[in-house]
Design a protein that fits this description.
The protein is an all-beta fold and 175 residues long. Helix content is 0%, strand content 49%.
Length: 175
């Protein structure tokens, strides 16, 4: 509240552990539940939590990005193997594997114009850019940026197209 008091907005299902959050265009709060291999949806009015997508093949959905059409993109790191993937979750809740063979996929974001999907690899300290087609398919993978030190975490784009990247261990956000 404006006076600084907080309250619990929603309680996740037993065994769920929330990580990345995004608010959709209608106010729905989407939660990456890495323990349950779920993408959860929280109604903004009733605060009812439902499983939008459950995908047992996910290692642990971590961060989320939203496309202009409401499609959700989820990073899926496998920290033990140093590997990662990217999943697409349609508005119908169906999950589809979009990319594999990545390093520890963590931060993920769709560009302001909806034409690029950025995915970073925390441990490998690289940011990849993919062309994002209107149907949600990926192509044209290219290295966008690489860093000599410290890990990468969450990312967001602003309306002007700038990409903001949290650098854990360094305590900074780079643009």
């Amino acid at each position: 509240s404006p006076d600084g008091r907080g309250e619990i907005f929603a309680v996740l299902p037993e065994g769920s552990v929330g990580n990345g959050l995004r608010i959709g265009p209608t106010g729905t709060l989407f939660v990456a539940d890495y323990a349950g291999h779920n993408i959860l949806a929280v109604d903004p009015v009733t605060r009812f939590v439902r499983v939008l997508a459950h995908e047992p093949a996910m290692s642990q959905p971590n961060d989320l990005a939203l496309g202009p059409d409401g499609t959700i993109y989820a990073s899926d790191p496998d920290w033990t193997a140093g590997a990662g993937r990217v999943w697409k979750i349609g508005r119908d809740g169906r999950a589809a594997l979009l990319a594999s063979g990545l390093g520890t996929a963590n931060g993920i974001e769709v560009s302001a114009d909806g034409g690029t999907l950025y995915v970073n690899e925390s441990d490998q300290r690289k940011i990849w850019a993919f062309n994002l087609s209107p149907d949600g398919a990926l192509g044209g993978k290219r290295l966008f940026a690489a860093f000599p030190d410290f890990g990468l975490d969450g990312m967001r784009c602003d309306a002007d197209g700038h990409l903001y990247v949290a650098r854990y261990g360094k305590g900074t956000v780079v643009v």
